[in-house]
Structure formats: C-alpha cells, structure tokens
Amino acid sequence: MSSLRRTDLLALSNLRNDGRKPNEIRRMTVQMSPLTNASSTNGSALVQMGLTSVLCAVSGPIDCARRSDELSDRAVLEVNVRTAPFAPSSGDRRTANPTSDRRIIEQSSLIKNAMEASLMLHLFPKTRIILDITILADDGGRLSAAINACTCALVDAGLPMKDLVCSCSAGLVTGTGSTADGLEDIELMDLNQREISTYSNEASAVYMPVATMPQRGTVVLAQCESRLNSVDVFEKVLTAAMEGCQMVFHIMEACIRERTAKLLASKMGNTTVNVNFI
Amino acid sequence: MASLSLWQPKSHYRQTRKGKILQSTTELYLRDDLGLGYTIPSHSSAKRNNVSVTITGSATKISNAQNLLELLIPTYSKTDKTEKTRLVVVDTNVLLHNLDVLEHSSCAISNIVIPQTALLECRHRSFTAYNRVMDLLKSSTSKDDSSDKKRCAIFFPDCHHISTQIMAKKKMTVNEENDMRIRQVALYYGDKLAGSGVDVILLTDDKDCRKLALKEQKDALDDESLLYQPMSVREHILDLENEDHEISLSDLVAQFSTVVSTEQTKKQYYPAHLPQNELSIGVKSGKFFQGYIRAERGCHDKCYVTVRQGEDRVAVNIIGAKDINRAVDGDIVAIELNPVSKWIGSDNDVSVQKKVKHGAGIAEETAEPSIRDESNVMDEVEVPAEMKQDPEEISMRKPTGRVMGIIRRNFRTNYCGSIFTIDKSMLEEKQDDDISERDRIVNEYEVEHPDGSTTCVFFAVDARIPPVLIRTTQRERLLSKRILIAIDSWPSDSPYPLGHYVKTMGVTGVKDVETEVLLHEHNIPCDPFPAKVLACLPPEDYKIELEPGRIDLRHLPVLSIDPPGCQDIDDALHCIVLPNGNYQVGVHIADVTHYVKAGTAIDLEAANRSTSTYLVNKRLDMLPKLLTTDLCSLKGNVDRFAFSVLWEVTPEADIVDVQFKKSIIHSIAALTYQQAQGMIDQPDDETDIKASAVKRLNSLARILRKRRIDTGALTLASPEVKFVLDSESLNPTDVQAYTLYEANALVEEFMLFANVTVGKKILRHYPTLSVLRRHPAPNRSMFDSLISKAKCKGFSINIEDSKHLADSLDAAVLEEDPYFNKLLRILSTRCMSPAQYFCSGEYKPTDWHHYGLAAPVYTHFTSPIRRYADVCVHRLLAAAIGVEPLPVHLSSKSYLHDLAANMNRRHRSAQLAGRASVQLHTLIVFSGENGNKEEDAYVLDVDTNASSEPSFTVIVPRYGIEGRVRIPNITANDKNIVRDAEKHLISYKGKKIQVFDKVRVKIYVNVVQETQKELMIDLVSPVFGEQVDKTSCGEIEATLEKKRKASTKSSSGPTSAKKRKKNKSKK
C-alpha cells in the first residue's frame, strides 16, 4: 500500500528527513551551571538535543519538609517535571494542564528510578534531593534530554554518582524494500518529534527511550510502548539506543571536563569563571 | 561529528483545522559528505524456483567526479559518428508531465539526475507521478549490463547538501525558490564535470527558468562558456532525433500550449479559473463548494458534484462545457451554485436544455438513467425558502452549478482509446445537420503542422473523458489502433484538453486487444507476478503432510461442489451422522494463509490486487497459479490443508456446537453442480456415501434457507447467461441461459452459514478490528420508479424493510407471464446500494447490518483464493482460536481502513470489468453468423420525457442484453404521441408501449467505421406508424442511427453468471 511508504529518502540516499544518517544523534549541547546565581539551587544544567531543550536544577541535600518523609538509611529523591508555558506544543501533549499530565507524572517516576540507580543516596540519610526539571522546548525525546540534564546538574552540584546516566532513544522503521524480500528494518537513533509521530501510525514501527550507565554497561531504563514483534527487534533497537547513549556520554563527558577545567583554573586564580545566564 | 557541518532550524507556520496558527520548527542538517548524489544499482541473480530475480541494491554514494564518470552511459550519435555523454538534470514539471519521455528514452536520455527538491514537489503534486519516479530511480542499471535498456538515474539530496544551498531572496515564491535550487544542482554538476567532456543539461519547460539559468551563469562567470545548458524537453528531443533518426520520442512530449493555425489564435473558449487562494477562501466562507466532479455515465458534458451540507449530501448538476469549465471526471473542483431560477425543473429549464446543445462536447441526445456511485445522494432538494421568488412554485428542483476552479487535477496516468478521422469529401456532400458531432470535431480540430506532425483528435473508450487533442508524427500508423495517451493540460484557449501519445495497444476490434483495453480501463492489475512474489512460493517438491497444530480430518468423506471446469476450488463440505443421531457438518476452506504469510511480498501483492477478476475468456488471479490451482485448491483425492468450521447440528438444523480448526483433509470427490443435483434427485441409497451426504446437506440447507427467508433475506435476480466458447480460439459462438440447480443453492447456503458463524466469532474476539461486510439499507428514493412501475400492473411494493420487500416481491406474480416476477427482482436489485467491506471499529454496531441477507453480522470467509478479505478473516480467526498471533498490520485501524477501501474499489472494478468483458463477447457473438436475431424482450423503462425521441429500454432475457430502443417511424414532436409518465406508457394512434410489455426485437451489429461496431436493438412488433416505402424507411433509419451513434451504447450491463462465484460475491 502506497500510503505506508514514508521512508523513501532513507532508501534513496540513506538520509533521514532532517539530513541525518540513521545512526547519528541530533546536535547536542550541554551548558553547565546556567543558574549559578539562584541561591536555592546547588547545581544546574541546560541540555539541548536538537530542538528539545531541558533545564534541570538540583537542590539538596536539604532537610525534609516533614519528619515522616525522611528515610533513615538514605536520601529521598524528588523529581518534579514541568513544561514551560511557552514550549511549542508537542504531539503527545494531551491535557490543558501540563503539571497534572499523567505522562509527565509517569516520566518523573521513570527519571527518578533511572537517577536512583546511579546516585549514591545512602551517603545522605534523612535528607532530600530535589530535581526540578523544566522542559523548555520539546521536539521529541524529552525523557532522554531530561535524564541527561539531570546527570549534568547532579555533577554540577557535586553529588556523588556511580556513573553518568546517559539517555538516548532509538526506533525501528520498516524500510521500503531495497532487498529481495521487500522489507528491511532500519534502526534510527534519537528520533525527533516528526519521526515519532509519523512512524507511530505504522503498526510495525518501534520507539524506545533507553538510559544507560555507559562505563559500567548497565541499562537503567528502557521504556517501550510499541508492539515488539520479536526479541530480535528488541535487541536491535536496544543496541542502537546504547550506541546513542555512548555518543551522548562522550559529549557530556567533554562538557563536564571543560567546565571542571575552568573551575580548577579559576581556583588557581588564572581566569574567572564564565557565568552563563540564560 | 564532522559530517554534520551545519545545523539550521527552520520555522514554518501552519494553520490547524480549527483555524489556529501554529509555528512548527524543524531541524535541517547540512552535510558535506554527500558527494555527487546516490544511485541504486540493480543486478540480476538466480533465485529459488528458477526465477531470475533482479535485486535492487541499497543506495550507493557517488563520492567524486571520477566515480560518476564511470557510471554515466554514453550515447552514440549517428550524425557525428561520435559518442557523447549527457547528464540531464530535470525539474519538477518534467517529472510531472514528461515522465513518458524519461521512461521510454532509456537509450537516448540515459543519465538523469533527480534533485530532491523536484522529487518532493512532485510527490506533493501527484502521487502517481511520484511513484513512477521512484521506480525510475530504482531501475538504474550499470554500464556493463547487457540489456538494451540502460539507464543511470541519480538521486541528489540537494536539501541537505552544503554546496547547493541558496539564499532565497525575499518575496520569492516557493516555485521560484525551487527552480533556483534545481538550477543550483545543475550548476554544481556542471562545475564538477567541467572539462570532462560531459554535457550537463538542465531540462525545464519553464521559459523564465531557462532565461535565469543563462543570466545567472553569465553573472557568475566571466567566460562565455556555459557550465550547463538549459533546454526545453521538446528542444532536447529534437536534438536527439536529429542525431539518431531511429529515436522517435517527440510524440511522447507533453503539450502545454495550443498550436493553432493563425486565424483561430487566442480565442478564449472558457472563462479563466480563479486562483487557488481565492478558491480556498471561497470554500471556507461557504460561497463555493468543494467536491469530486463526476461525469454521468456515457457523456462528459453532464457532470455532478456531491456537496455536503450538514448531514445531507446533495448532487449538484453541472451541465455544458462552459459550466464544467475544463474539469475532467475525478478532479477536485470548487463550484458555485447557480441562482435558483436556473435550476433544473424551474421555468428557465429550457435555457438549461439549450445550453447543452450549445456546448462544445458531443451532445448526448439521450441520457441513461444515472446510477450514482454514492448511495444516499439526494437528487433533488427543496429550494431554500429565502431563495424562492414565488411561494407557489414547486419546491423540488435539481440544483445546478458551475466550476470556478480546479483544486486538484486527477488526470489519470493513461487513457485508452483511438484517433478518428473522416473522409472530408464525404462531409462536404452532407448537410450540416447530418454531420455527427464526432465528425464535426475531427473536421474542425485536426490540423497538420508544417513540421510533418499532425494534431489529431483522440476519443477515449471511457465516454466520460472529453476528446483530447494530441500531436503526433505517425498519424497514419495510429488510425484504427487502440492507443494510450496522457492528458497534459487544458488551457483556456483550447476547446479540448491537450495530450500526448504514450503507447499503441493493438488493432481496434481484435478480441485480445479489446480485452486488454477493458482491463486497462478498469484499472485491473494484469502484470505477471514479480519475481519477488514468486520467490515466496513453496519449493516445487513441497509435500503436504500433517503438521503439529492441525487436526487430521482425512478420514471424513469431504466433497466439493463447483461449476464444471473450476480449477480454484476453495470450499468443500462434509456431513456425517454422529452416534447420538445429530449431524456433523463441516465446511472446509482452503488454507491460503498457510502459504501466504502476513507481511511477505506475496501478501502485499495479494492485498493490492484484492480479488481475482473473472472475464469471459480469462481469469486474472489474485495469487500465483501454483497456489490458486494446485496447492490451495481443494481438488479431489489429494491431501490439502484447510481451515474447517465444524458444526454439530440436530437433523432440524439447530446448532448444538461449533468448532474452528486448522485441518488437513482429503476430498473424495470434486462434483459439478449437475452431478450433485443428480444425487439430490436420485432415490435414497444409504450405501452411497457421497449421495447420502449430499442429500443430508440438502435437507439441512432447505431448513437454513427457510429460516433465513423468514427473517427477511431477499432473493434478488440478475439476467444470467453464459457463453459457449470455441475450445481452441476461445471465441464465443453462442450465448446460453445459465441454469441454476438446487445444488447451487445448497453450496451457497452453507457458505453463508459459515460466513455468518465466522463473522460472529471474530467479532467476539476483536470487536474493533474485524473485517466485515455490510450492506446498507437502500435509499427509499431509488425505489420510487420501481414502485410506480409495479403499480401499473396492480402490485404494491412495500419497502419498509427487507422482510416486507421480500414478501411483496413474492406476491407480485403474473399468471400469464412467469418472467414478470424476475423482472421485478432484477429492477429491485438495481435499487440496492452495493455491499462493502469495512473494519468493525469504524461503524456503529447498528450499521454492520447486511440488508440483503438480513444478517446483523456478515463477513467473507469462504473464498480466500480469490478474495483478500477472506485472507484477513482467516488470520483473524486463527488468532481468535489461538493458533497464530494476530499480524501487527491487522491490529492497526488505519491500515484496515485503507485495506477495506482498496478491497471495495478492486471488487467493484473487477465486477465492472467482468461485465465489460461480457459485453465485448456479446458483440462478438452477434457480429458472427449469429447476427440479426429476432428475440422476445421486455420493456424495462419508457422514456416519457416530452422533448425526447420516443424510446424505451428493453431487456432480452435470452442473451442478457439490455438496450434502448427507439420507436421507429415517429419523430419527437409528432402531435399524436401520448406520453404518460404515471403509467410508464407511450401510445401512438392506438398502439402503445408500456413498462413490462413483451415486445419482439431485432438484435444486430451496426458497423460505424471499419473497426467500430455497436450492438443495436430495433423494434419489430408491435408496428408503429404507417408502413412506409421500404427503401425510404431504411434511409430514415440510417440517418437516425447516425444521429444516435455517438450516444447510444445499446448493450449496457448484461450481467453474466459465468460462475456461481459471482452469485455468492454479490451477497
């Protein structure tokens, strides 16, 4: 059926609609400490993956608001996700009130789980750590961008972590037949909103955000709402996503090193720290 | 990431359906690693089943000029005796309109660059053209390929290429910007290939673009030499033809402007179309209405557009070439309603009538009663109160309108038909009035050009298409041939659309050519199965053996009952007596899904074809032959896989239990209907397993049928005939009535039973994903004419619901004329809207109803070999009983919607093609020795329209022919004619013709031109008027026929019942 042919550009030139190859992630920039002057935050980061940009601010460890919330053996991690009112409307935003959106609530709990895997919470018993995530723009993959932003912000806050948690999405589309069997699956990395919404109409398409701890090789999150035909498909997509996470890791690592080098230099009194305002 | 050298967010503004304006931003990555574009190389290799498969590889990058030079294919020029290599960069308009040139010119234009910009725009404008370009891109061959057809097609992703980015100037239109991008691509190639001896040519029909191309190059380079040459398609083709006289491509070049002789220049035939933005504003504001324009059957200057107004759909008539304003059947147009005074049925009606005669098209003197495609379309509407000038006026009128502009053209890829010519000397002798419309057009518009080409007038087989002017250099060769053409444009200074020749199909009138024509006209896929599909077949040494998950039913006495000579047997039955006295009845259906796995190439191909098409002399299968006639066909005395429905029923046909099983069966006999009937009729004999099974089945079938009829199922009828074919030439020699046995009804009954049972089962498991078949209740207004006709004979037809209709049809029996009841049933069949496939999630449960069968749920399960719907239902059922998981596709509603739409369309065109084939064969039978027959016929309809020629429609039951008969010897305005619309009666001096009358007619073939034949029906008795002198009578008739010949297609719609299958499929 002709209406299903949406991957012609891929078949013709191995390019996606925005000009990327299937195994390339979007342009990613990390800005450390954009909120330095805000007194209540201990660390912050702004991560942009393509046109998706997410700001994360870390407060804590601080005292819990109520005694009953405290845990005796470790710190409590709180994750609040909200969407900026000016964020371009995304395809899957369904409710008028973004703070009570079930998807956002679900995503905050996913982010919490992912970060808890790496954060050494047991070092700060009876306290809480708050991650305030603001989605400034959403062009697909906001869960991944949010996790990456959290990692960078936590690093910025100087909280001990086992590894950097890196996240990237991957998907699988059914190609249009450059082989004899007619159908060939192509894995795509870091899908943008257009790709997600186009392919989500196809029954065989898969979309899966994954978060890993790349240096340890552990997967801390893999969320998939699409229907998977076989284990093979899952493995393919997971492998692609993990490669993406590796790329994300390199970018994040470079940014963190650069920032640390600058901080170090300023301590030595050589230069002043560049304070970035948004 | 070095390759992503530039990142550009781009913003677009778009308006949502609610009118809100949204800004959407997308990224665009520009790259420097794209080289000189991509090709998709293909190479052949041997595959399974000894089929050679051409494999299209994946896209390969051409990284530098050296690589490109290796790929390019040189052309040999005969005049210079040298080899030249050309690289052609095409723009959007060339892709849209001159694809025929590109496709056919593999030896001349062998190296094509298709820029992404052009491809995207092409996709936006026409999906068919886009698909053809994609095929072109995928059929690129390598230089060393031995085949004659060499082509190097290169795709250039210019939108992402850093070197071809342009700075769009402000106030540039999208088109100008795209043209600029394409020029940039040509420049890039020209630059890269400078000095390599390759001519880079930019092919564009846009004059401004060519001018700009020259100017830009001059500005950029000081030097006089050009990096690339801008050319129009015609120029380029002429260049090529000069070099090599064997190339004749100029016929294929699209025409955009009229080439008229000087005295006719610049005559505007049509009002200009409004620009697109005004149209969309008009549509939004409610001033204009948007819709598909449809031509009435058999004429192109009476069209209608179905307009939605709230819940109602109203057909707006658009009459006359001026009002239709260059729209062609299938276009999406914007129309404006005419003032009420111009609606049909008002006082100004005459003016509308006059307009028809003034129109430039072939004036149809008779209009066949139109059966509108869509059901539930109101023909007449009440005039809105505020528009009524006179409250006394009758308020029911047919609205008319006129086309203000065309929103989207729907020029089909190709139209089939022939060129006509006339003998000019003969014309001069004739009076003006005697010249037929067609001759007049040919006389007026056939023009010879000084360069040896001729503009000819082409008439499509499909009369809904206006005549087309095509320019050709081979007029003599094309006369009396069936040819394919494409329509290119219709400028307002041209009376008819302009087109170009594509292909010759063969000599007109030859059976095989005409069969091909009718397949093409109904858009039936008739290509052989591609190698990809054949590769999915099981290997030749495939053995059918019991496998896990199937139950072994080979011990059961299964038998099949089909028409004689049936090869694709998809159903078989059995019936045994269980120890408890109940019967076990089994319906076994060929297990097609065992061989056709979901998502494979063979499955996609079958989904596209959707149905097998049965013609009189040919069968076009949905699946390859190996499956259709062998592996799936439940032939006698071999093991076959089946999908079985097993019931336990009491002898009174009450269901005790039902089971669905994948099974393996062994049919003990493949019976014909006649044989089965013999078994039903013979006396009881318990020893004969087959006969006793058939008898038991028959007794059950009777009970089931009675039950069905009691709930209100309709028994409908159609004139059914079959052809006696010559065994060798397959030429039809005679037509016979088709005999229906009780055995036909037996099989049909069990198939219905199985379908209903399966439909309920899959619906229980997949309430929103089931593929079902519904038959909407007919529109009441359709029955108006039938009711009034039946009244003439003193019967009343109650159309309250199907039960009442069935009862009143049963009651309408005339003692003296047994055929009367069948006539009524034939007529009521025509009032029905067609049944359709649908996905259960799309309609309310109340709309799932099947009217004809009076069943709340119905589906198709029993013929998976020849219908794709059944294949889907098999998969659903297999998933419902837990044998196999549901394929992912079938769980997507949007896919199911597309699938159902495709199945409905294919089903309809298969039916129409079958009917057209019957018509063609009828014509062949009558043009043989069997011509000039006198037969009994029944009057179906009487034309009581005051101004029309006195005529009526008859059906000839013996041959299943239906046609219009003119009452001889009376002219339209004779004062003695009495027309009575109420009683469906025309009388003239004591003689009368009324509906359902039995008349005697003569059937013969009228040869219009050497190659064009028409079936005609003439009245023999009763005799009207005074017997005139024999010779003069003949003359009158001859001239009258001339007048009619353009319009009357005498034999319309005889339906064959070549097979029982057809009968079933109607349900």
From TrEMBL, chain A:
**Its family?**
Belongs to the RNase PH family.
The record ties this protein, via Pfam families, to:
RNase_PH
Main subcellular localisation: cytoplasm
Molecular-function annotations in GO: RNA binding
Tell me which Gene Ontology terms the entry assigns under biological process.
Answer: nuclear mRNA surveillance; poly(A)-dependent snoRNA 3'-end processing; rRNA catabolic process; U4 snRNA 3'-end processing
Q: Where are the transmembrane segments?
A: none
Q: Give the Gene3D superfamilies listed for this entry.
A: GHMP Kinase, N-terminal domain (3.30.230.70)
| Name of protein | Exoribonuclease phosphorolytic domain-containing protein
Q: Which InterPro entries match?
A: ExoRNase_PH_dom1, ExoRNase_PH_dom2_sf, PNPase/RNase_PH_dom_sf, Ribosomal_Su5_D2-typ_SF, RNase_PH
Sorted UniProt keywords: Cytoplasm, Exosome
Give the location in the cell: Cytoplasm; Nucleus, Nucleolus
The uppermost taxa in this organism's lineage are: Eukaryota, Sar, Stramenopiles, Ochrophyta, Bacillariophyta
Q: Supply the SUPFAM superfamilies for this chain.
A: Ribonuclease PH domain 2-like, Ribosomal protein S5 domain 2-like
What's a GO cellular component annotated to this UniProt protein?
cytoplasmic exosome (RNase complex)
Question: Which residue intervals define the domain Exoribonuclease phosphorolytic in the entry?
Answer: 24-160
UniProtKB/TrEMBL annotation, chain B:
The PIN domain is annotated at 86-211
Q: Which Pfam families match?
A: OB_Dis3, PIN_4, RNB, Rrp44_S1
Q: What are the GO MF terms of this UniProt record?
A: 3'-5'-RNA exonuclease activity; endonuclease activity; RNA binding
Q: Where is the signal peptide?
A: none
Per the record, its GO cellular-component terms are:
cytoplasmic exosome (RNase complex); nuclear exosome (RNase complex)
Q: Where is the composition biased (Basic residues)?
A: 1057-1067
Record Gene3D superfamilies: 2.40.50.690, 2.40.50.700, 5'-nuclease, Nucleic acid-binding proteins
Query: Per its UniProt entry, which superkingdom is the organism in?
Result: Eukaryota
Chain ranges passing through the membrane = none
Q: Which InterPro entries match?
A: Dis3_CSD2, NA-bd_OB-fold, PIN-like_dom_sf, PIN_dom, RNase_II/R, RNase_II/R_CS, RNR_Ribonuclease, RRP44_S1
Where do the RNB domain residues begin and end? 550-883
Which compartment or compartments is the protein found in? Answer: Nucleus
Q: In Gene Ontology terms, what is a biological process of this protein?
A: rRNA processing
Chief subcellular location: nucleus
Keywords noted in UniProt? Exonuclease, Exosome, Hydrolase, Nuclease, Nucleus, RNA-binding, rRNA processing
Could you tell me which residues belong to the region Disordered?
Answer: 1040-1067
Family of this protein: Belongs to the RNR ribonuclease family.
The name on file for this protein is: Ribosomal RNA-processing protein 44
